Amino acid sequence: MDTSVVTQVAVERYIREEVSNLQNDERKAQAMAGLCILLTQLQEPSVPDELINAIPTFYSLLDDAQSSDRGIQANACAVLSGLMVVSEELQKRIINDGVVRRLQQLITAVADTEERTLQLNALACLAEALRDRKEEAEAFVAAGGLAPVLQLCDPGLPVRLQEAAADVVCAVACADSTDGGLSEQGAVEKLVSLLATPNHDVRVRALMGLGMMLPKSNDHQVLVARNTAAITNLLAIMRQQEDQDCRIVARDIFAGLARNSQCKDFIAKAMRT
């Protein structure tokens, strides 16, 4: 017998068992943690019906803004992320059920706390829901959802949290019509602040977000050009040799700024300092 089939069957069986444990308050936390792991073990895009039918349970966990168990909520975000990755059909269903609104409310509720795992998992789930989803990204920005995300897009926070927050901004920036909202809510400045980081994953996302946003707006370009630290950091990234991907993106951003007649004097001034 094909061992991969055995593994798939076994994983699906364990998933069903953990779903049944969700109804037991004493076992719920362990069941949620188990589901997070089991979803990563599926070798085929096949999810047991029992888990799909349990999706409303995960929504209810996200809706509990005053929950005393943030760990369970963090795992609920991870499960929903994992389900969206499985198939386009599941992603569409979860998005249509309002997961973006729920995540927005949840992130807003915990943005000022030290609940780092929940913040991280909620951001990752949100990025998965918004990626390549123009209408959802537009509605998210219009509803003011960027505010708590940008609050977590902070150089003083753990690098994985910075990366996850910047990833959400990149997902939103992919939709052309979100440009105005991104600008008004300060996304450009937030991404610029991350350019000084030595962490590759954070830096590359900051560059990717700026690379998508700056060509769409002359005001964005001037804003960055006037920021001496931003130009200095772009030049430093262009000159370093260890991270070629970041070097290329930084070079393209800098070249775009240099072509803008309104930016040239600011760039020259920054290069003299």
UniProtKB/TrEMBL annotation:
Domain of life, source organism: Eukaryota
Protein name according to UniProt: Uncharacterized protein
Native organism: Volvox reticuliferus
